[in-house]
Design brief:
The structure holds two protein chains of two kinds. In chain A, strands 1-2-3-7-6 form a five-stranded parallel β-sheet, with helices on both faces. Chain A is 43% helix and 10% strand. In chain A, helix 2 crosses helix 3, helix 2 packs across helix 12 and helix 6 runs parallel beside helix 7. Chain A has 14 helices and seven strands. In chain B, the strands form three sheets. Chain B has a seven-stranded mixed β-sheet with strand order 3-2-4-5-7-6-12, sandwiched between helices. In chain B, strands 9-11-10-13-14 form a five-stranded mixed β-sheet, with helices on both faces. In chain B, helix 9 links the parallel strand 13 and strand 14. The longest helix of chain B has 16 residues. Classes of the chains: A alpha/beta, B alpha/beta. Chains A and B meet through loops of A and helix 3 and helix 10 of B. The complex binds thiamine diphosphate and magnesium ion. The site of magnesium ion has 6 residues of chain A, from strand 4.
Chain lengths: 357, 330
């Protein structure tokens, strides 16, 4: 465990943070530790050939998902890209259903159909898990539209990477969100790179940052450090209030860092960034260490409790591996299920005409 | 003869065409400094520099459209889609602009662009990353669609595609990138380079009893099935590889069917209006009197790509599936 001293975050005094109980604060630590452990264990399983496809690890960025989702209420919704394990767990999905999905098992959150990039849990207001860069950004606006239309006081947190800001669909969504006053919050998790391409090499006008693109649409925006739970919560809460009270969208750009390569298959992970850069983040900006030390400083936890939390996360992750291993693969008959609602529900429409060829 | 990978064959074709014509540029996500997500462009940036190898932001509609525009003014852009699935982000540019600018301008403009990238399922990357849109693009007059199955074809067809004066969508396969085939050195070829015309199918295996017709990786699956048919059932299958889907070599297909009187079309595409639907209709129209059995088709299962590795394996055609189908008409 690192021994960095944390200077108290000025955001600790924000209203949304002052009202936190010790249990709340401990839960954030527990959630971040759980996400990290889940991913460390899934990486091992991936390397043992237990799963296929891609595995995009969120390790290093945990404070963003945990901090921002922690301010959400019962009418606030989440949607994200393919680096989605952290948001899924922070939304309350279980390690079991997530690990089983990675293993391609029928007990997975998407019944083994989606895989790592396509986790879903609408009952937890978690709308995925989207593999196409930027593809979720109009959907986020759509969820906000549906909330507003139904007079529900809620919003949609739509997460995206720094590379996704250059998709046309995102810009169209921004215009719609502002034009139609949609309660959507675009959270750009700026980890500095889209695969092997630095922000400077992919986005024009780097001096302005990425969130400032909101200016073009008359939309509010903010930039913050994503490594600290207090700061993430304070900034997200401002945006959530704007969405709830004024039905206005926001772009919130949070600086963060991914420790691993773009995906586990990223052969160049060590090439486009220096070892020193990666080490610096791990040693000085690790969101888990920062929060753990904050809680130690505040006297909210003891070293023993911190160890216990880690131990529990380890056990939960191990159990999820066992659950995934023991679960059955989907039957072949599942291939043609979940394609059409009408067919699955055996309606008249579903029985009329041939649906499959 | 030397053997090289499909990946290396494409790499050589790009390298040779960059040398052959200075209007050729290679543009796409991670194609330059990163050497390509699938390493198809490995070493090219180092050799040709920033002007010829260009890393694009994640803006497919923008950069594919830009390539189309540049091709209107005499350039020969080779645009990489990291996955052909991402073509859907650029669909309007590809379907409306690339296909029709020539027609709508009454032939005043042409569009010598190549859009290339892997278009395949089978790698457990889920529905968003596993599209096989060869039938969709081949449906559009003005576009050409190529889908090589071997390193030899990949190299020869890529060089032709780049020199072609129309838009060519070149669909590769990540499962083939690492496979090796014989590809001659240029010094061993008459004329000094490997050029394969579009619109020429290739008989990958001669046979007399049934025609297994396919494109892309399904050709490899068909070849494996042919071996089983021979060794276990004494059936001598011919394997016809389209190589280019549009333009289409109808003659080679028809000649094969007229010889064998039976055919199965195999593809990793979906069944509805798939490439095989076009081919079987054509065979029925033009070789009806030669047929001893209905033309059959094998495709991937008619659902989005399933992530779960063991299930996805059975979603795509596999050799035993072909054998079983072939036996129903032999
Ligand atoms: C439309 C589209 N183009 C390209 C890709 C391939 N791709 C997946 S992730 C990625 C980089 C995205 O970077 P960023 O938005 O910064 O997110 P991060 O990976 O850093 O979380 C690319 C190019 C894709 N999935 N979808
Ligand atoms: Mg990024």
């Amino acid at each position: 465990m690192s021994t960095d001293t944390v200077s108290p975050s000025p955001h600790a005094e924000a209203e949304i943070n002052k009202s936190l109980s010790n249990e709340d604060k401990i839960k954030f630590l527990r959630d971040m530790v759980r996400i990290r452990r889940f991913e460390q264990i899934s990486l091992k399983a991936y390397q043992q050939g237990k799963m296929g496809g891609f595995l995009h690890l969120y390790i290093g960025q945990e404070s963003v998902a945990v901090g921002s989702i922690s301010v959400c209420g019962e009418n606030d919704h989440i949607i994200t890209a393919y680096r989605d394990h952290g948001h899924a767990l922070a939304s309350g999905m279980s390690m079991n259903e997530c690990m089983a999905e990675l293993f391609g098992k029928a007990t997975g959150c998407s019944k083994g159909k989606g895989g790592s990039m396509h986790f879903f849990a609408p009952a937890k207001r978690y709308w995925g898990g989207h593999g196409i860069v930027g593809g979720q950004t109009p959907l986020g606006a759509g969820i906000a539209f549906a909330l507003k239309y139904q007079d529900i006081k809620g919003c949609c947190l739509c997460y995206m990477g720094d590379g996704a800001v250059n998709q046309g669909a995102f810009h169209e969504a921004l215009n719609l969100a502002s034009l139609w006053d949609l309660p959507v919050i675009y959270i750009i998790e700026n980890n500095g790179y889209s695969m092997g391409t630095s922000q400077k090499r992919s986005s024009a006008y780097p001096e302005a940052g990425l969130a400032a693109r909101a200016e073009a649409y008359g939309m509010d925006w903010d930039v913050a450090n994503g490594e600290h739970i207090y700061e993430v919560r304070a900034k997200t809460w401002e945006a959530v209030q704007r969405a709830h009270e004024q039905s206005r969208p926001t772009i919130l750009e949070l600086a963060t860092y991914r420790y691993y390569g773009h995906s586990v298959a990223d052969a160049n992970a060590q090439k486009y960034r220096t070892k020193e850069e990666i080490e610096k983040y791990k040693n000085e900006h690790d969101p888990l260490n920062l929060w753990r030390n904050t809680l130690l400083d505040e006297g909210v936890i003891t070293e023993d409790l911190a160890k216990e939390i880690q131990q529990e996360a380890n056990e939960e992750a191990d159990a999820s591996i066992k659950f995934a291993e023991d679960s059955p693969f989907p039957e072949d008959s599942a291939m043609l299920q979940d394609v059409y609602w009408e067919v699955d529900n055996d309606t008249e429409s579903g029985k009329t005409g041939r649906h499959f060829f | 003869m030397r053997k090289i990978t499909y990946r290396k064959a494409l790499n050589e074709a790009l390298d040779e065409e960059l040398a052959h014509d200075d209007m050729v540029v290679v543009i796409g996500e991670e194609v330059a400094e990163y050497n390509g997500a699938y390493k198809v462009t490995e070493g090219l940036w180092e050799k040709w520099g920033d002007k010829r190898l260009i890393d694009a932001p994640i803006s497919e509609a923008g950069f594919i459209g830009m390539g189309i525009g540049a091709s209107m003014l005499g350039m020969r852009p080779v645009m990489e889609l990291m996955f052909f699935s991402f073509a859907y982000v650029a669909f309007d540019q590809m379907m409306n602009n690339a296909s029709s600018v020539r027609y709508m301008s009454g032939g005043l403009i042409n569009c010598p662009i190549v859009v290339r990238g892997p278009a395949n399922g089978g790698t457990n990357v889920g529905a968003t990353h596993s599209h096989t849109p060869e039938n969709i693009f081949a449906n559009m007059p003005g576009l050409k669609v190529v889908s090589p199955a071997t390193a030899y074809d990949a190299k020869g067809l890529m060089k032709t595609a780049i020199r072609d004066n129309d838009p060519v969508f070149f669909m590769e396969n990540t499962m083939l990138y690492g496979m090796e085939w014989e590809v001659p050195e240029n010094s061993e070829i008459e004329g000094g380079e490997l050029i394969i015309p579009l619109g020429k199918a290739d008989i990958k295996r001669e046979g007399t009893d049934i025609s297994l017709i396919a494109h892309g990786r399904a050709v490899i699956t068909a070849l494996e099935a042919a071996k089983i048919l021979e060794s276990e059932h004494k059936i001598n299958a011919e394997v016809v590889d389209l190589r280019s889907i549009r333009p289409l070599d109808e003659e080679t297909i028809l000649n094969s069917v007229k010889k064998t009187n039976r055919s199965v079309y195999i593809e990793e595409n979906k069944p509805f209006c798939g490439v095989g639907a076009q081919i079987s209709s054509m065979i029925m129209e033009k070789a009806f009197d030669y047929l001893d059995a209905p033309v059959l088709r094998i495709t991937s299962v008619d659902s989005p790509a399933f992530y779960s590795p063991p299930v996805e394996k059975r979603q795509l055609p596999y050799p035993e599936m072909i054998v079983e189908k072939a036996l129903t008409i032999c």
